[in-house]
Write a structure and sequence with these properties.
This protein is mostly helical. It contains 14 helices and no strands. The chain has one domain.
Length: 316
């Protein structure tokens, strides 16, 4: 018996149980009658329009990753193939550990003619820049008044700025990538990233997070029409909650962690019961936004295994 795997799985079950108890039973079911007296209603049309909006922004993300691949590996992945790889590999988030999402993207990118090192490096770099941009947007837009006990942390958020500046400095980043390649027993990267590359990707990812926030704001209004949040507040809440959920490596898909953060950050403006409801609905909303494009792409492109057997994955 692999005791390490068993311990990790037990830890995941315990975390999910605790979060489930806190979110669903303690905050929601015990106050279900009270919810009927509060101002909330699920409006289907705004709900699905905001969902389609965030799906469209996911498509923008696929093309940013395509730009990273071209700069790092010199391979121009076709736009629809980039979308296929990005969305299908994104399902790996629902497995324990975030490595499956990144590994899946790297493996499928190799089918496009990328070397193993360039495929892995482009996948990791794409995620890191996305998270750094989200961290900047979240810390800049989330008001102290909504952060509750974490409000004092935001006052020191400027400390994160040097990290972003250092990471966007090409000599540092190129050395880190080559160090990772050497530790993995791979040859160094043949292409060097320029400051222009990194700045463009960072700005584009920052705009993506703003788009996420606007769609999340529309979603909140589809559940709580009277919500007093500004779209900038919603953007800060989404960025901080999503990133913390992403960084919860042991929990598949950040389940419970992301909803817990949304609940915490929304409570000041709409109360704990409605905030919990919105947070739980957000899981359904985001899951549909991810799965609808996946269903369409799989219907058109087929399963990855079958695709590679036919040799289509090696076309450029």
């Amino acid at each position: 018996m692999n005791w390490k795997k068993t311990a990790v799985r037990a830890g995941q079950i315990l975390i999910l149980f605790v979060l489930g108890y806190y979110l669903i039973y303690h905050n929601l079911l015990l106050n279900w009658r009270k919810l009927g007296e509060l101002d909330w209603q699920l409006r289907p049309l705004p709900f699905f329009l905001s969902m389609l909006g965030i799906s469209a922004i996911f498509l923008v993300n696929t093309q940013i990753w395509r730009m990273v691949v071209l700069a790092m590996g010199g391979v121009s992945v076709r736009p629809w193939r980039a979308a296929y790889i990005w969305f299908v590999s994104n399902l790996g988030r629902y497995l324990p550990g975030k490595v499956w999402q990144i590994a899946g993207m790297a493996a499928m990118a190799r089918g496009e003619g990328l070397s193993a090192m360039d495929a892995a490096a482009s996948s990791v770099l794409n995620h890191v820049i996305l998270m750094l941009a989200g961290m900047m947007i979240g810390l800049a837009l989330l008001p102290d008044s909504l952060a509750g006990a974490f409000g004092h942390v935001l006052q020191w958020s400027w400390v994160a700025a040097p990290l972003i500046v250092v990471f966007l400095y090409p000599p540092v980043l190129n050395r880190l990538l080559n160090l990772a390649a050497r530790l993995a027993g791979k040859p160094p990267l043949t292409r060097k990233l320029s400051f222009g590359n990194l700045l463009v990707w960072f700005v584009l990812n920052s705009l993506v997070w703003l788009g996420y926030g606007i769609c999340f704001h529309w979603f909140i209004l589809s559940v709580v029409p009277s919500a007093s949040l500004a779209w900038t507040d919603s953007t800060g809440i989404y960025a901080v909650g999503y990133i913390i959920g992403f960084l919860a490596i042991i929990v598949p898909g950040g389940i419970g962690v992301r909803e817990g953060m949304f609940t915490l950050l929304l409570t000041a403006s709409m109360g704990k019961e409605v905030a919990t409801l919105v947070a739980l609905f957000s899981r359904l909303w985001l899951t549909l936004a991810e799965l609808v494009p996946v269903a369409v792409l799989l219907a058109v492109g087929g399963l990855p295994g079958r695709m590679y057997k036919t040799g289509e994955g090696s076309e450029q």
